[in-house]
Write a structure and sequence with these properties.
globular; binds CO-5-methoxybenzimidazolylcobamide; five-stranded parallel β-sheet; 5 strands; 11% strand; alpha/beta; Rossmann fold; Methyltransferase, Methionine Synthase (B12-binding Domains), Chain A, domain 1
Length: 210
């Protein structure tokens, strides 16, 4: 078995006790951290999602895979991010109201942070009011980043963007959106300033607004 297939196998089957050691071993062997993330971890989450769609896996399995991935990402994080001065301003990020998925959002936050922004992470199930409160109470908010993974919470994203577009300070920040069901077309329709398909592209997009 290769390092990558060991890692993806452990995440897919929720082997939470061994994931940290497997990731550390792959790092020590010199595998690129982004390869470990994308080919090992994200691929495993895609696989468990496909099994869920086919009725071969259930919510508890998805949950334990998610927890296993989080433990692996904790080991990987120092190798993916670099120290920055947070000079580009503040990014307020959250998964929209009704949605509890946070792995993709956490990766986006990590990549944007490593691009030089300060992150205010509001977590999951974030209401319009909490986004607005964070914009009002933090200095130099340049970007508001909204994530969602569920088609059923796309209307929640739409509503939050519409209300943020009416915000008095709207000229001082950009709104970016993403998540598996989101497209560039949807982002444009709801009045967001930008869309990106993955975490690395989200960091590039954020920088393009700075
Ligand atoms: Co859920 N779930 N889930 N789930 N889950 C999906 C999303 C699903 C596609 C599975 C499936 O059916 N194949 C499906 C949604 C179907 C749909 O809406 N059409 C689904 C469902 C149905 C559900 C429940 C309704 C199940 C139920 O209860 N019956 C329920 C909903 C709960 C809720 O939120 N209210 C539910 C619950 C859960 C768990 C709690 C068990 C767990 C989440 C744990 C957690 O996040 N802490 C879970 C998981 C793990 C998944 C899958 C398997 C994996 C998600 C993930 O972490 N992917 C997922 C299937 C899948 O994605 N294939 C699934 C890895 C992650 C790195 O990718 O999040 O897409 P992703 O992020 C990417 C990009 O999307 C992008 O960049 C990231 C990295 O490159 N991106 C952005 C994300 N946000 C961005 C923001 C940006 C830019 C890019 O700018 C701001």
């Amino acid at each position: 078995m290769s390092y990558i297939s060991d890692i993806s196998g452990a995440i897919e089957t929720g082997k939470i006790k061994v994931i940290e050691e497997l990731v550390q071993t792959a790092i020590d062997a010199g595998l690129p951290p982004l390869e470990i993330l994308n080919d090992g971890m994200v691929a495993a989450m895609t696989a468990i999602g496909e099994r869920f769609s086919r009725g071969e896996a259930f919510v508890p399995e998805m949950l334990i895979s998610a927890r296993t991935m989080k433990k692996g990402v904790d080991i990987l994080k120092p190798h993916l991010t670099k120290e920055t001065a947070n000079a580009l301003g503040t990014v307020v990020i959250g998964t929209v109201q009704g949605d509890m998925h946070d792995i993709g959002k956490n990766l986006v936050a990590m990549m944007i942070e490593s691009a030089g922004f300060q992150i205010v992470d509001l977590g999951v199930d974030v209401s319009l009011e909490r986004f607005q409160e964070a914009i009002d109470s933090n200095d130099n908010v340049r970007i508001v980043a909204l994530s969602t993974l569920l088609t059923t919470t796309m209307p929640s994203m739409k509503r939050i963007v519409a209300e943020l577009n009416a915000n008095a300070q709207r000229d001082s920040f950009h709104i970016i959106v993403g998540g598996a069901p989101i497209t560039a077309e949807f982002a444009q329709q709801i009045g967001a300033d930008g869309y990106s398909p993955d975490a690395a592209a989200a960091a590039v997009l954020a920088k393009s607004f700075s």
